[in-house]
Amino acid sequence: MRSPDAGRAELLAQWREAARDVPEGWTFSHLAGRLTDDQPPWDYPAACRTALRGADHVLDMGTGGGEFLRTLADALPPDTVATEGWDPNVPVATANLAPFRIPVVRYDAEADPPMSMPFPANRFDLVLNRHESFDVTELARVIAPGGVFLTQQVGGDEGAEIRELFGAEAAYPDHMLDNIAAQVREAGFRIEGSASWHGCYQFADVGALVSYLALIPWDVPQDFGVDAYADTLLRLHADGPAGGKPLTFAKSRFWLRAVLAGAA
């Protein structure tokens, strides 16, 4: 019979490997079958395709590794540009989007001090933004009058249970639809549609959660690691997966489509 200490050591070793085994880019495909989640009632990819029908100059903000933008490649106009603010993703996105002749420009909307977007005024007639921060003043500058801003965002209340478990502060507590909509209106946009929604994530095992958190480090303390938080992770395992129950956490999304006022 194995000792409890041997079982603990084996689990911790598995979770350390999970923390290291994170793919390039911005994808959770490596967790297929171990991470399942509810989907919001709207279809953001379909909304993007609808918006693209009338667009000639398109920006995709925060393209990650270019994974999502590639799925829209057949609908994109020749003048399509992407930005990415996380340095490790820039070469990944550049390689993934090169076959479609889509340039990737480094831009971090959360830079301190703030960065101006590296584009002239009125450059785009459509800006897509899936789960990326944005400076609404800069957004209004680079979108031409009558241009469209279409975004899906992660609500600031997502990850609350995870942060409570590990003692982390909320990174974006005010990032909710009402607040963002007010900022967008104040910048001169007219909102044509929006909605918010809450669902759930389910993790089949603690290793899947650890791998997921490696891609969203803002939901855990800066010192987060398997060994530093071994007791919490082992308790999660005992309370859930050890008994065949998944780990369940809240998911939060909202979307918004807005048109910049001032079209002739």
Estimate the mean pLDDT confidence: 93
Report, as a whole number of angstroms, the end-to-end distance. 79 Å
Spatial strand sequence of the major β-sheet: 1-7-8-6-5-2-3-4
The helix-and-strand class reads: alpha/beta
Principal-axis shape: elongated
- Helix proportion: 25-40%
Mind describing the biggest β-sheet?
8 strands, mixed
Q: List the helices and strands in order.
A: HEHEHEHEEHEHHEHHE
Provide the fold topology:
Elements: H1 4-20, E1 35-37, H2 44-52, E2 57-61, H3 67-71, E3 79-84, H4 89-97, E4 104-106, E5 124-130, H5 136-142, E6 143-154, H6 160-166, H7 177-186, E7 189-203, H8 206-215, H9 230-239, E8 247-260
Parallel strand pairs: 2-3, 2-5, 3-4, 5-6
Antiparallel strand pairs: 1-7, 6-8, 7-8
